[in-house]
Amino acid sequence: MPARAGDLHAGLESSVLSTANFLYALDLAGTFVFALSGGMAGVKNRLDLFGVLVLSFAAANTGGITRDLLIGAVPPGAVSDWHYLGVSLLAGLLTFYFPSRIHREWSPVLLFDAAGLALFAVTGAGKALAHGLNPVMATLMGMLTGVGGGMARDVLLAQVPTVLRADLYAVAALAGAAVVVTAAMLQLPPTPSAVAGAALCFALRVLAIRNGWQLPVAAAPLDAAADGEESKR
User: Can you give the pTM of this predicted structure?
Assistant: First the structure.
């Protein structure tokens, strides 16, 4: 009996470690693709090498740093683990020196942004759950992890953040994070649930881009509309 208990404990430890390693790999993958989106945005706006690298790092790590600070995981992984910096700089260099190889007919910034959003939404929710947050807050932390980097990228480029004007951006992140949190509450295997959550988030974002799905947009005030008509005359 003790031997069986020991085997069970070892099996649980192995499962936890494999899940942690899987989430870590997803986090680095999300860092890379979000850094690509930041780098491509920098190239599109004709920034110099330093500007492209800064934008790559900001896009890839701002969401994770904010999440870690809020849940008490200090120092943040992006600061304490050199892999995040290395992956971000690698993506920035690739976009700066080989933009034509990365660029495709369909906007790469949107594509990489959708992939990064999906990966960060599920890893953010998973890390929040691991630090004891309740399901609602864990879902919100997943969303924050996904949208934070894109917001930083857009703000640095003096643009309205995509999350405030785009087609189902934050909603897609919420949906992906909710899958992970719901699966954890039902005690389902974490790896398939993370894959399912990321796939749902990515699919929603891509379909929203292609089909123009979006939330209702605020109408311009009457006086603002009148001013606009007056300026056209």
Answer: 0.79
